[in-house]
Amino acid sequence: MITKRIIPCLDVTNGRVVKGVNFLSLKDAGDPVELAKTYDMQGADELVFLDITASSDKREILLDLVARTAEAIFIPFTVGGGISDTDTMRALLHAGADKVSVNSAAIRDPGLIQKASTLFGAQCVVVAIDAKALLPGETVPESPILEVAVTAESGWQIYTHGGRNPTGIDAVKWAAYMAACGAGELLVTSMDRDGTKAGYDVALLSRISEVTTVPVIASGGAGTMSHIVDALHVADAALLASLLHFGEMTVSEIKTACHADGLCMRL
After folding, report:
1. Is there a catalytic annotation at residue 57?
2. Which residues contact 104 (CB under 8 A, 6 or more apart)?
3. Catalytic member of 40, 45, 51, 130
């Protein structure tokens, strides 16, 4: 039986952890290194750091944060946000990150994923997918990659740049395409559910899990213990932010509940 994972997510800007709703209304949630240490002690399986306002002039701040985190914790962690080339990936991995997460850059250049997978191994490469459900009759922009374009039957469209720019790319097709290009994991965020505590988009997670064999990380919408359990019945890991950052649940409580529901967990 595959062991399911609980992964706290730390959205970082200017060296602080923040959390919002639908990618907006950000609130300060604490120091990233101290939070990382707390979640490590609570039994988190991994961590994800997302530099949500990444830019070249802040890159040294992120590298320092990665190095300090690597010294403070004993579990794997992934770093993402504004990563667009293998040199940056190499620098982050050398600083102590175990994996790198790529979003917009993969759309601009899908070959980047294949190159990164060859250089560093697929286990180091995570492709993040920010998806939003299509509304009835919604028009979408033309996709830059024809084979993954949104069609009339598509359910979800990918967005980039923190959820601001629609791409015309179908989320389910893109997931399968990225796995074929060498992605070792897929981090799937429902923009509709992000920060709402209304539950993960289990339908989206199920569709993506059906079309690919690489691990799928559920993100966006956890509000109750049952939301997490439901997501882990179709996904390989659950990403959590506000529930943990603001003390509504602990990692150990979540794992105990998931284990009681028959899910295989590292307790």
Report:
1. no
2. 84, 160, 161
3. 130
Tell me if residue 40 is catalytic: no
Over the stretch 224-245, which tens digit does the pLDDT of each residue have?
999 999 999 999 999 998 899 8
Q: Which of 17-31, 72-86, 115-129 has the highest mean pLDDT?
A: 115-129
Q: Which residue bears the tokens 């509504």?
A: 248
- Please state, as a whole number, how many other Cβ atoms lie within 10 Å of the Cβ of residue 251: 20
- Measured CA to CA, the distance from residue 114 to residue 56 in angstroms comes to 24
Q: Which of 11, 40, 45, 201 is catalytic?
A: 11
Tokens 């609570």 — which residue? 42
CA angle 12, 221, 242 (to 5 degrees): 40
What pLDDT sits at residue 23? 45
Q: What percentage of the chain exceeds 90 in pLDDT?
A: 73
